[in-house]
Input
Amino acid sequence: MTGKKVLVADDEIHIIHVVAIKLRNNGYDVVAANNGAEAYELACSEKPDIIVTDYQMPFVTGIELIEKLRRNEETKHIPAVLLTARSFAITQEMQESLGIEECLSKPFSPKELLKTIQDILYQRAVAVRG
Amino acid sequence: MRRQRRLVWAAVGTVMASLCLAALTGPYDSGIGEGWRSGFAAWRLAACCLGAVGVIVLGLAYHRLARTVASIARQLTWDSAAATDLQTIERAAETVQTRLQDGQKTIAELETELKDLRLRSRLSDRQKQHTEAIIYSLRDAVVVVDESDRLLMANTAAAHLFAFDPEQARYQPLGRNLDAQYEDFVELIQRSRQSATEATRREMAFAGPDGPRTFDTIVSCVQEQDTVSGVVAVLHDITREKEVAQMKNDFVSHVSHELKTPLASITAYSEMLVDGEADDEQTRKEFYQVIQSQAQRLNRLIEDILNVSRIESGLIKVQKEPVSLTILIEQQMQMIKGFAEDKGITVTGCNPIVYDQVMADKDMISQVIVNLLSNAVKYTPAGGSVRIETDVNEVDAMARVTVTDTGVGIPADEINHVFDKFYRVGANNKQAKGTGLGLNLVRQIVEKVHNGRVFVASQVGVGSTFGFELPLAAAELAGATR
Output
């Protein structure tokens, strides 16, 4: 499962840093953005295999980012993980309608995040192989 | 008296008749002379005459006496009957007297009752006046209609809310005198009356001169013998309560987010260290520094929350001393420069050092300056600038600090709220994170603790100038001496 590209979007540089180290240590490529607008541009240009995004970010929130990605034919299939301190604001309906694979609450465990990413990508790979 | 006279006459008649009888029955001629014989005959004649008169007098007296006796007997009979009648009358009188007494008692009772009723009536009138005074002085709008939805009463608050004259509208259908936007309110009253529900509660929003206002509306039916005789509606303005509730919710939301963010870093970096994910000493040192800085950030946030709370409750310890604003500015500029440079923002200030400008709590005023500077950096896009300046107004004896940025600015309709607790400018919410406490803390420290004042001017897309004024130390000391 190594070599997969993960886009990490968060306005907290320390969070990006720690997630990037964890993922890189486990063989993933990481691209990072510190706001939603930048993340959308990177998603379009880098075509990541999965996106990990914060909810509350300047200019474009994590939810707005996912909405934009779902409207774009080239990015609508990218699985998304929401990493947020506002998990109480995310309803099951919202999660399903936006196609959010998983919603993790901050404070979070990098190990748990890694496992979540691994599981999602594995299931996608199994689905593709049929 | 008459009876006594009759008895006297009867006695006189009896004496005369006895004399007559003695004269007639006495010896006629034994031993007397002729002369005496003739005188005796005359005497007999006279006695007979007297006897006749005496008999007549006696008869008359007897007759009169008999009449008198009969009269007395009659009188006695009458007196007996009268005595019986008298007893009846006495009994009747007693009855009448008893009844009279009863009547008097009843009258006394009725008079007492009347007094009571008058007293109660006066009390009732007074209570009515008090109740009306209370209703009219209520800040809640109160409207009372009768069984046909005609207005009976509307207090001052209702007149103000519905912008109508209750006196002119009295006894007219309520809907006729209210604006179209209150149609729902009128319908609510009608429906409550028709369904005879005891109390209906609904939140209703009306447009007001200062924006929409929300009212907690309670409509109650007045029941009289199973029929609705009227409806009372009370409208309590909960606009501010809702705003405060919303602000509290936003605050909890923001604060929890702000608390969780550094906590997330601390947790994640700690886990990485424990799991041996930091390969070398340099990386480990970097992780430790992150944990330390995030712990400090967490502490600052908690301190901010506690400081606002302490200042509001008056429990904070204030240590005022002569302070140079220019030195504090210089120190805080150094603190903020790293954060500003990361964002590509220049922070400048051209203040010659001036000592002992104000009497202030050094830590608190440092907090004010850093809050204004960090706010300016947070809301200024990359490439922008922040400038901090001080000057002294000798006339007003005030020292002034201004922080000017080239940031996003604040819309005019929100600028008056920027110092409110938990308030965050809606348009700039996405620009940066925050709790809505920083500027409130600035105002609390400047105005409540230091008797100064805060101010702000802004233009959307151009930038903002935040600032504060504090009394000069010399002026404050002079004031204290006086």
About this structure: Residues 5-129 of chain A form a domain with the Rossmann fold fold (CATH 3.40.50.2300). The mean pLDDT of chain A is 92. The two ends of chain A are 17 Å apart (CA to CA). Strands of chain A lie at 5-9, 29-33, 50-54, 80-84, 100-105.
